[in-house]
Amino acid sequence: MRSSVIAAAALTLLAGMSQAQAASYAIDPAHTYVTFEIGHFGTSTNRGRFDKKDGTIAFDRAARTGMVEIAIDTTSVNTGFSKFNEHLQSADLFDAAKYPNVRFVSDKFNFSGDKLTDVTGKLTLLGKTQPVTLKAVNFNCYDSPMLKREVCGGDFEATIDRTQFGMNYGIDWGFPKNVRLLIQVEAIKQ
Questions:
Q1: Could you report the per-residue pLDDT of 124-143, keeping only the tens digit for each?
Q2: Are strands 128-143 and 101-112 parallel, antiparallel or unpaired?
Q3: What's the per-residue H, E or C state across the chain?
Q4: How do residues 158-181 score in pLDDT, each as one tens digit?
Q5: Which of 62, 157, 180, 183 has the greatest number of beta carbons closer than 10 A?
Q6: 7: exposed, middle or buried (C-beta count within 10 Å: 0-12, 13-18, 19+)?
Q7: Do 72 and 101 touch, CB atoms closer than 8 A?
Q8: Among 59, 58, 72, 138, which Cα is nearest to 104's?
Q9: What confidence score (pLDDT) does residue 159 get?
Q10: Has residue 116 got a pLDDT over 80?
Q11: pLDDT of residue 19
Q12: Which pLDDT value is given to residue 20?
């Protein structure tokens, strides 16, 4: 009995130590971009970005673990054309008045050796949550000569089926259901 208690205490201590080594990072809005691409009647590609986003990351490089939470403000969608922005914010698409945020939350960082391959999590859009895996195209950490702190970041991408979230506008006209999501992110160690 006593050895079980000691073993449990040791495991709790080790778990606490590994969590204590995860560093906190804050999303750097000056170096973080969330964009999307969707085909337009088989001709061109419509693109847009979200100008407001924030989030936090906890990352333990040695343990190859992490957590991320990113919030994207749907009222900040920007295509460079105000009428298109208004339509994207309408109830037809992002319904920004009712759902002002899109959220990505993850506690699963996947590695191949020392290389981050993807981040698996849940995306909430229009009040519906679905699993999404963001593939890491690039990922690195560096000591910023300007900030005098560590910065970690990379380029991530995923293709999502917007109809899984209830975004069905234009499907009957031939608009594609698949949207390419691109996230370039840098986060500053706190």
A1: 999 999 999 999 999 999 99
A2: unpaired
A3: CHHHHHHHHHHHHHHHHHHHCCEEEEECHHHCEEEEEEEECCCEEEEEEECCEEEEEEEECCCCEEEEEEEEEHHHEECCCHHHHHHHHCCCCCCCCCCCEEEEEEEEEEEECCEEEEEEEEEEECCEEEEEEEEEEEEEEEECCCCCCEEEEEEEEEEEEHHHHCCCCCHHHCCCCEEEEEEEEEEEEC
A4: 999 999 999 999 999 999 999 999
A5: 183
A6: exposed
A7: yes
A8: 72
A9: 98
A10: yes
A11: 47
A12: 52
Give the Cα separation of 153 and 186 in Å (integer): 4
**Quick one: tokens of 126?**
């229009």
State yes or no: pLDDT of 5 exceeds 70.
Answer: no
Closest CA to 125 of 97, 152, 104: 104
The residue whose two tokens read 């849940």 is 122
Q: Give 116: exposed, middle or buried? Use CB within 10 Å, 0-12, 13-18, 19+.
A: buried
- Tokens coding 12: 């709790």
In the numeric block, which tokens belong to residue 189? Answer: 């160690």
Domains and CATH numbers, the chain: 23-189 (2.40.128.110)
10-19, 85-94, 171-180: the lowest-pLDDT one: 10-19
Whether 32 and 26 have beta carbons less than 8 Å apart is answered as no
